[in-house]
């Protein structure tokens, strides 16, 4: 049974305020002196986890492992109210091996815990471990499938991502915008136009046909497959657009006047370019050897601060060189704080 001190702690963490640092130190001292109170350990872990003090929650758990191993009771590892927030925070902090220890010691696991663990493994690049965990699950939901598809895509395993999407359909799960977005991008990377068209047709029969994330991914897919007209059709039908949508269309036009035109149209519609968008349109100017437009974009890069991105500086060096302005090219090169192989080659 929790002691009076445990009750005081419970009152503090229930006050909607994060427990203070001095309090956790006093609490740790109390726990060391009261090793028999397993419920007190559980209360501390739950409190700090639920109220955002992730470092303290992990610290209390490690202290419990060190000084009170006998208290690793069923409450600690089977009560979701205690362990789920702690597992989630360990994943967010990148403490994947600590999270894995919690996961392995759980007496019972639900699909939320499994999904959290898969996310953590993928974030650390442990894709094979995440695949083994996924395939070993007795229960999966749409999040399980979408997480794996996105993870495979992010790790350059586009073909496996598309194949898993097919399995997901056959298993009867519902897809969301992230599922469609990830698999469309995978098809674009594979230049798998046929499969990409099938996914597009599937999307049109769902509530996600007007989703900006899905639309952007479809534009990107058609652009990579060099089917610009189809990309334009999707782009023009989008009721909402983002910088990603505009950039996908711009990249689809390649190094052409159309790319420059759509860049200006994007700005007229109130969208500010990011480093990738600006770098893409500058590359178009370099290919067109348009020094005047390039100088205009250079001013914009200076004002916006995007010139600090090494990729942006590199394309400007290339632009000035192609336009015969070697002095400007060299001046920008020596002003760069950091350089890479592309900088020197340009």
Number of strands: 0
In terms of structural class, how would the helical and strand content be classed? mainly alpha
How helix-rich are the residues, as a percent range? over 70%
Would you tell me the overall average pLDDT? Answer: 81
- How many helices does DSSP assign? 22
Q: Return residue spans where pLDDT drops below 50 for at least 5 consecutive residues.
A: 6-11, 13-23, 68-78
Strand count, sense and closure of the main sheet?
none
- Portion of residues in beta strands equals under 5%
Distance between the termini: 71 Å
Order of helices and strands: HHHHHHHHHHHHHHHHHHHHHH
Topology:
Elements: H1 4-13, H2 21-33, H3 38-50, H4 54-67, H5 74-78, H6 80-92, H7 96-105, H8 111-123, H9 127-135, H10 142-154, H11 158-170, H12 177-190, H13 193-203, H14 212-224, H15 228-237, H16 243-253, H17 257-268, H18 275-288, H19 291-304, H20 310-322, H21 326-335, H22 341-345
Give an account of the 3D structure.
The chain is mainly α. It has helices spanning 4-13, 21-33, 38-50, 54-67, 74-78, 80-92, 96-105, 111-123, 127-135, 142-154, 158-170, 177-190, 193-203, 212-224, 228-237, 243-253, 257-268, 275-288, 291-304, 310-322, 326-335, 341-345. Helix 17 (257-268) runs antiparallel to helix 18. The longest helix is centred in the N-terminal third of the chain and has 14 residues, at 54-67.
